[in-house]
Amino acid sequence: MIAYDKLFLMPTSGCKSTKYSAAIPTRARCRLEAYSAIMSIAHEIKHARRVVALTGAGISAESGLGTFRGKDGLWSKYDPAVVASIESFTRDPRKFWEFAREIGWIFLTAKPNAAHIALAELETMKRLDYVITQNVDGLHQRAGSKRVIEIHGNAGRVICTRCLAECATEKIVDRIAREDVPSCDRCGGSLKPDVILFGEPLPKRAFDLALKKVKSADLLIAVGTSLEVYPAASLPEIAKKSGARIISIDSERTGWDDLCDYKVSGPAGEILPRIVQAIRITF
Ligand code: APR
After folding, report:
1. Which CATH class is domain 1-65+112-152+201-283?
2. How far is the CA of 186 from the centre of ligand 1 (A)?
């Protein structure tokens, strides 16, 4: 069930209040607003020419993966400058691998949730062009999305920092458990998960493609991201400047809500399947 009292359509300016909605009791009004949020967004998606989704850690929260910011976020327990920067990795890769071992296993075992599946369905229905994700968990692909742009890499791969050989993380789990810093079979160099650490450049091809898709989109749906990290944080603004409408689905208020044409507050795993259902049965 949708938590109706947590699900509000929030046009960021010019919120319309009608006599009808003012006259009905609060709980019923919440239901109406929730219903109207779903229908409005379904309508936007159905009538857009090119839709892209931009996802962050919040879309994987219902798969059991932690987010980064907020009260219980990963960065409230660990200092990202110490455990997730390229500078600290280069200085002391052991510290990084200690952290990676502590949080990493869940990445290999987590399953896609209803929000990932809903985005994959939208792609199948030809309503979604691309998913651009900051996540490194591979859950969009495991849910069936084919067109996924990973701008922060993928924890399912490791890469040798010396000879750049790549291999699947699941193939070396024993070595990761055994060795302080797992090393490359070929050259003995230190291995590193193929994820972008703070201070590293984003993969150029992936980010260029993301930029191209965002510039040609007429609707961008951001799901579960605080957008506190650049350059990903610039994407909705670039889309907006190129004429796209912006929708945000997030369980909390975020610092960039003012940019949005629609904001829906609530769990992505409940909201996105409702939107897909509304597109199927209406219009
Ligand atoms: N449904 C929708 N949104 C949710 C849910 C949920 N079930 N749970 C949490 N959220 C929202 C939070 O309210 C928050 O706005 O997801 C967002 C997660 O924000 P962050 O933790 O900052 O994650 P993200 O935006 O992906 O971080 C960007 O920061 O440290 C880096 O490289 C890391 O890619 C990551 C980048």
Report:
1. alpha beta
2. 37
In order of 136, 173, 202, the CA distances from 182 in angstroms are 20, 10, 24
Q: Which of 135, 251, 256, 274 to mutate to test the pocket of ligand 1 (most atoms within 8 A of CB)?
A: 251
Q: Tally Cβ neighbours within 10 Å of residue 205.
A: 9
Q: Tokens 């904001």: give the residue.
A: 263
Q: Which two tokens stand for residue 3?
A: 């938590």
Q: Does domain 67-109+158-195 have CATH number 3.90.1010.10?
A: no
Residue pair 152/135 in contact (Cβ under 8 Å)? The answer is: yes
pLDDT, residue 103, reads 84
Local confidence band at 21 (pLDDT 50, 70, 90 cut-offs): very low
Residues in the chain: 283
152 tagged catalytic: yes
C-alpha–C-alpha distance, residues 249 and 222, integer Å = 6
What average pLDDT is seen over the chain?
A: 87
In the chain, where the domains are located:
1-65+112-152+201-283, 67-109+158-195
Helices (H), the chain: 19-23, 26-47, 74-77, 80-83, 86-91, 93-109, 114-124, 139-143, 173-178, 204-216, 235-241, 268-281
Percentage of the chain beyond pLDDT 70 is 88
- Please indicate whether residue 236, judged by its CB atom, sits closer than 6 Å to ligand 1: no
> Is 73 close to ligand 1, i.e. is its CB under 6 Å away?
yes
Do residues 85 and 96 touch, judged by C-beta distance below 8 A? no
